[in-house]
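Extended Data, panel c. Modelled sequence:
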Amino acid sequence: MNRVETGFEDGGDDLAIERIVAELQALRATSQMRRYRGTPPNLPSRAETVAAVEGIVSALFPRHFGPPGLRAREVDSFVALKLSESLSLLRRQIELELRLAGEREGAAHALTRHATHIIREIAESLPRLRALLDADVLAAFNGDPSAKTVDEVVFCFPGVAAIIRHRVAHELYRLGVPMLARIIAEKSHSETGIDIHPGAQIAEGFFIDHGTGVVIGETTIIGKNVRLYQAVTLGAKRFETGAEGQLLKNYPRHPIVEDDVVIYAGATVLGRITIGKGASIGGNVWLTHSVPEGAVIMQAKATEDIFVDGAGI
């Protein structure tokens, strides 16, 4: 191995980079032996996955997220080119995740065919996703008196940015590539402060106002025209465990929120409960039981004891 120059040698403070590299290699080897049989497969690229989905977003909203000065007669050509580039890039990342998930090198043709099928499904879903997103954008515009134009909503609202990326991530999750879906979800989370698991099922007309601190769990189901405010949690009440104490996965553990529900800032809704159609959940409520249609759930009002000469009345 060639000696690595660190810039510390002249002062007699050698960092022993070669030894550290060797120790790290040994730790990686041990970790990989626990996870893989044989040579570790290549991992998907976070950067290329994000780039592919951002390309799809620009194809869904070319006037907003396409190149500056894009003329009307150029839009369709831009969309076609961007989809071709982005779907091709994404297909490669899908292949890498499928291989990582256990599809063997010996079945390379089948793996490519599977990845191509997923990409075709993603492409075919895009008109449906755009229609859903149009309803989401209008819900945000109609639901926020501060919004002056629909274009402002698309450009600026973090809830809209989050739901755009969630709808693409959910398709990836639904089609069997959950790691790529989670990469997109976490990139969106880091940029908007809104944490939506890609497994969450969300119907049209969804609006998150302000948005910071919102958490929506994997098995959440949200109906039409639902509105959430900042710091709302739709989470699990508890985690079930198996006979040996391991956490169980892939079971319903998050709320069902029916159509036309409003959940105000700071509310925490936990467990596989149902919030009935048209219900309103007040700010900072802690809710672990189902509520019927049209219910209004508020915090209990504090009572104040009045004392006169030491006697409470």
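Confidence is low (pLDDT under 50) at residues 305-313. This feature is highlighted in the accompanying rendering.
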